[in-house]
Write a structure and sequence with these properties.
The complex is a heterodimer. By secondary structure, chain A is mainly alpha-helical. Chain A has helices at 6-9, 14-27, 53-63, 82-96, 101-112, 127-145. Chain A contains 6 helices and no strands. The model of chain A is unreliable at 1-38 and 151-160 (pLDDT under 50). Helix content of chain B is 62%, strand content 11%. Chain B has helices spanning 2-28, 33-62, 69-74, 81-86, 92-113, 119-143, 167-196, 201-232, 243-268, 272-294, 308-332, 347-377, 386-406, 417-422, 425-441, 447-464, 477-502, 615-635, 638-654, and strands at 504-510, 515-518, 521-532, 537-547, 552-555, 558-562, 571-575, 577-581, 584-594, 603-612. In chain B, helix 5 (92-113) crosses helix 7 (167-196) and helix 9 runs antiparallel to helix 10 (272-294). Residues 300-305 of chain B have low confidence and may be disordered. The chains are: A mainly alpha, B alpha+beta.
């Protein structure tokens, strides 16, 4: 790790995590104009790429899957919000330290819950989300194939 | 006076809608013909009056009449004139009035132009349209009155969200709304035809131009919205699978499915029930989208409580209209048979698969949009974003494109697999060339962009196939339209694939004089200077991009600060500078100053992207709209009538 005061940027205690998330969500409407109201300089890797292109590509792919918690429908890869900058820094420095994207994601999900990931996991709560399209396709297919003419015997008499 | 007059016009228009509905209903229940004669003029007058009311609201914004609450909250006298006008629909009440105006004008246009339908079906259609507008009149007048006065006028207004102060706002919402609400016509046609049981080719032919027309506007609106997000948000993304974007995509998908199935009904008198169903779904999805956006459901479930009245009102309206239409459909299901049958390998068969895939994509986009809202209500907070849609909708969309390759090459009713196969080698060859080219020379390309570009190659060639061996001058316009639109899909798909696969990104803190390499460009950061706009101040950066072939281009990205007006906080936006080249676009953003270790702030964050073929995405969207327009021109029969007359004359000449 890069020796940054993580405890300041990321509340690590699970107990206050939900409170913080809630506060962030409630504050979201106020934070829409993503201004840099706190004029603290952004963390180094917020607006700086990693030297190694392969590492940067991995970091970029992960950042695009992570939600900016104070924005409306933006990933941390495309937001000017200070929190998104901090999270980009966190992701890049962890990648640079050799952690795998999967590990970083697990770490973030443990802190912020599944809310932080745009790629919902497959579990009890999301089963319908992932299987829904398949079910719909199967149902639609079953209905549609009833429309097709089977054999040539009911040629033009199909008018019902 | 203007505000009061506007309100009065709205009330009169609402009364006229009521008249159309009552007179139409009485006529259909066996009333006299005089009642039917009332409906047409009432519909036209309702449209004209609502448009006049909207004009008056624009006048209030232009005059910056701060005694009107809506103007005071959303406008400011310092705003440039174009944004004063556009600001009329940059807020809840104004945009709902715009929605209502389009709804009423559509009714008026049907009343004036529709001559092909039976009298009773037309009256039923107009009555249905009046019923739709009546609900939205009630919504506007009782819970979202745009003409409400303030007891004391403030000295000036609070201004408009700077992100919305862009020329895009002037065109994007009206375009999208015409598309959204245009689908109401298809909805009303479906309801009218269900009531009088006139469902067949005549009904489909009457409905088709309206579906095409609104779909053109939806296509243009979504394309323009995507480009707006691309250059205004400052990170170069062109589609975020954001809920607001999704709810515009859902009616577009319904419209795409509908205009393909209506073609089957019009040509072959098949798929009748399905066409009616899709017509109902189309506008229902427009209403669901408006409800989701307008009720505040999107920001968080909690903001629903901020204005429960509006949300509940819209929800009730939606339940009445969608529920009513579906009930009517169920009651009539017996008499709406599907019509003629056909083989799987036929034009109709491919269109059924097209419809199945389009509605599945529609369903999954709706599911992904609503799922987090429902999950949150049940205590589970999840996010559904690009990875989900890419994984689920991506493959379906690619299969859909492959069906699109085969469909236009098949004949109606029944076709032969071998015949289809014999028309495809060139397209398959094109796809293979793209695939091998990418695998051999493309480096590491993700599977979805790789398949996307390959399919784009196949579609690009195959979409032109319906023109092969034809006399191009005698090819009907709708065929040209289909070819253009399908080719547009290929162009769009190629742009998406190339942009995702080969994008180059450089984020740097640069001092004046520094040179940054990105793609084939060497970009020199010359420096910054302050500039003042009409209602903002900005830092303007100067970048000079040079290519290896010696071209040199100056780019001027800006970081703008809009002052907080009447106690609101200041807002900062990025104005990206774009350099469009044949091979793509160079995208430059000027970020914040960067403080060095010694405390001096001479460097600036610069974000640069080279986005290969990115403008093909919007070119493709535009081609789809052009294709649909050609088709509309053909369907509106103007050219056909002219040609028929000419050919009749020439036949008469050869007659013995």
């Amino acid at each position: 790790m890069s020796g940054l005061p993580n405890s300041i940027r990321f509340p690590a205690k699970a107990g206050i995590q939900s409170v913080v998330t809630l506060a962030l969500v409630l504050a979201a409407p106020l934070a829409i104009p993503a201004t840099a109201q706190d004029r603290l300089p952004p963390a180094p890797y917020a607006y700086q790429q990693l030297k190694d292109p392969a590492q940067e590509a991995r970091a970029k792919a992960l950042m695009e899957e992570l939600r900016c918690l104070v924005c409306q429908g933006q990933s941390i890869a495309d937001s000017d919000a200070p929190l998104a900058g901090d999270m980009r820094h966190e992701v890049r420095s962890k990648i640079a330290a050799g952690e795998s994207p999967a590990e970083i994601k697990t770490w973030l999900v443990a802190r912020y819950g599944n809310w932080v990931s745009y790629d919902p996991p497959f579990d009890g709560a999301t089963a319908l989300l992932w299987l829904g399209p398949l079910l719909f396709l199967a149902l639609g297919g079953w209905l549609a194939f009833g429309r097709f003419r089977r054999g040539a015997n009911d040629d033009e008499g199909g008018e019902a | 006076m203007i505000a009061e007059l506007g309100l009065a016009l709205l009330w009169i228009a609402a009364a006229l809608a009521c008249l159309s509905l009552v007179a139409g209903t009485l006529f259909l229940r066996g009333g006299s013909k005089d009642l039917a004669a009332l409906v047409r003029p009432a519909s036209v007058a309702q449209g004209v009056l609502t448009a006049a009311a909207f004009g008056l609201l624009i006048a209030l914004f232009v005059r910056s009449d701060m005694s009107v609450e809506l103007v005071a909250r959303n406008s400011n006298s310092l705003k440039p004139m174009i944004f004063k006008v556009a600001g009329t629909w940059g807020n809840h009440e104004g945009s709902m009035l715009l929605w209502l105006m389009i709804l009423s004008l559509s009714g008026g246009l049907i009343a004036i132009f529709e001559k092909r339908l039976r009298e009773d079906t037309l009256v039923a259609t107009l009555a249905a349209q009046a019923a739709l507008s009546l609900g939205f009149f009630a919504f506007l007048l009782f819970s979202s009155n745009p003409f409400k006065r303030l007891p004391v006028a403030p000295p000036d207004g609070q201004g408009l969200n700077p992100l919305l102060q862009d020329i895009g706002l002037a065109f994007h919402p009206p375009t999208l709304y015409v598309g959204y609400v245009g689908l109401s016509v298809a909805f009303s046609f479906a309801v009218g035809a269900l009531i009088t049981r006139e469902i067949g080719p005549a009904f489909a032919r009457a409905m088709r131009p309206w579906v095409l027309g609104s779909w053109i506007f939806l296509t243009l609106g979504i394309t323009a919205g995507s480009y707006w997000a691309y250059y205004e948000l400052g990170w170069g993304g062109w589609w975020f699978w954001d809920p607001v974007e999704n709810v515009s995509l859902i009616p577009w998908l319904a419209g795409a499915a509908l205009l393909h199935s209506v073609a089957v009904t019009a040509t072959r008198n098949a798929l009748r029930a399905w066409t009616v169903m899709l017509a109902v779904i189309g506008f229902s999805m427009s209403m669901v989208g408006t409800f989701i956006v307008r009720s505040g459901l999107l920001t968080s479930v909690h903001s629903f409580a901020v204005d429960p009245e509006r949300g509940t009102f819209l929800l009730a309206l939606m339940a009445i209209y969608i529920g009513g239409a579906l009930t009517l459909f169920a009651l009539r299901a017996g008499s709406v048979a599907e019509g003629k049958k056909f083989a799987l390998l036929s034009r109709e068969g491919s269109l059924v698969i097209n419809n199945l895939l389009l509605t599945t994509i529609l369903a999954l986009v709706l599911l992904g949009t609503l799922y987090p809202i429902v999950a949150e209500a049940m205590g589970e907070k999840i996010s559904v974003g690009p990875p989900y849609y890419n994984k689920v909708a991506g493959p379906l969309a690619l299969i859909l494109c492959l069906v699109m390759v085969a469909g236009p090459l098949l004949s109606w009713r029944k076709d032969d697999g071998k015949r289809l196969w014999s028309r495809l080698p060139l397209a398959i060859f094109a796809g293979a060339v793209v695939l091998f080219g990418l695998v051999l020379f493309g480096g590491k390309v993700g599977i979805l962009p790789l398949l996307g570009m390959t399919v784009a190659g196949v579609v690009a060639v195959a979409s032109l196939a319906p023109l092969w061996g034809r006399n191009l001058r005698r090819t009907p316009l709708p065929t040209w339209g289909m070819v253009t639109a399908h080719f547009g899909v290929a162009v769009c798909l190629a742009g998406m694939g190339a942009e995702s696969a080969f994008i180059k990104e450089r984020l740097v803190a640069a001092a004046p004089g520094d040179v940054v390499k990105v793609g084939d460009f060497a970009v020199k950061f010359v420096g910054v200077k302050p500039v003042a706009g009409p209602n903002y101040t900005a830092i303007e950066g100067t970048l000079v991009a040079t290519t290896s072939s010696g071209g040199s281009f100056t780019m001027r990205p800006e970081a703008r600060t809009f002052p907080g007006l009447m106690g609101t906080a200041p807002t900062e936006t990025n104005e990206a500078a774009l350099l469009t080249r044949p091979g793509g676009q160079l995208y430059a953003v000027l970020g914040q100053p960067v403080t060095s270790d010694d405390g001096s702030a001479d460097r600036y964050q610069i974000r640069l992207w080279w986005k290969p073929l990115v403008w093909w995405i919007w070119l493709g969207g535009a081609l789809i709209a052009v294709g649909a327009s050609l088709s509309l021109l053909g369907r509106a029969q103007l050219l056909n009538i002219w040609r028929a007359r000419r050919s009749r004359k020439s036949q008469e000449r050869f007659a013995p």
